[in-house]
Amino acid sequence: IGAKCLATLSVEKSVGDVLYERMDVFVGFLEESGNNYNCLDLKETEKLVVAIQLAGAMAIGNLANSTERVVKMVEDGIVERLMELQKSKNVNVRHLGTGCLNNIAVPVALREVLCDKGVLDSCLKLIQEDTNAHVLFSAVIGVKRLCASAKVQDDFLKRDGLTLLLNQRDRLNMKEHER
Fold first, then answer.
1. Whole-angstrom Cα distance, residue 130 to residue 44?
2. What distance in Å separates the CA atoms of residue 19 and residue 9, rounded to the nearest whole number?
3. From CA 81, how far away is CA 76, in angstroms rounded?
4. Closest to 63 in 3D by CA, of 110, 25, 111
5. Tens digit of each residue's pLDDT (9 = 90 or more) over 127-167
6. C-alpha–C-alpha distance, residues 67 and 121, integer Å
7. CA–CA separation, 1 and 13 (whole Å)
8. How far, in Å, are 18, 34, 84, 177 from residue 81 at the CA level?
């Protein structure tokens, strides 16, 4: 419950400034493994881990609202931790982790750096493998945002990203009127 409260409070600018100074707490939420909850059964531990990861990702996504903060997040390795969330078995964690990366990709100056860190590849992998519409939409938005950089556009084309996107409608069995 405390993690969710912190995530909610992170939306307020004045509170966000204070919370940003303790970003390590939210990064810790992303890395939650459940190893400290031996008193719970596996299913309850998994639910708790997901809740903590979601709260951490929500807070980080909310705090990624200024170029200064986002640059610091990139420098502090938060991007790599968010890309780990994209590999979660939980669809909500994948979706929110990808959404956070989208927020971090807002400053144009960082888009090439994010591509070099593997964000384009991780989004393309989600587009290729995931079947959840929310995750796919978020991944496509991430690719679109990153491709505002000419260098990232070139990388996207070299990775055959356009063909990948076009093939998804067939893979997902979309009806003609849904395309």
1. 25
2. 9
3. 10
4. 25
5. 999 989 899 999 999 999 999 999 999 999 999 998 888 88
6. 23
7. 21
8. 22, 16, 5, 38
Instruction: Using alpha carbons, select from 115, 111, 86, 89 the residue that is nearest to residue 100.
Output: 86
pLDDT at 14 over 50: no
Amino acid at 38: N
pLDDT of residue 51: 83
Structural contact between residues 155 and 120, judged by C-beta atoms closer than 8 angstroms: yes
Nearest-5° angle of CA 29, CA 78, CA 22?
55
Instruction: Work out the average pLDDT over 76-104.
Output: 93
What's the rounded Cα separation, in Å, for the pair 158 and 164? 12
Residue-wise pLDDT tens digits, 46-62: 777 888 888 888 888 88
Rounded to 5 degrees, what are φ and ψ at 173? 55, 45
Burial 2-16 (b: 16+ CB within 10 A, else e): ebeebbeebeeeeeb
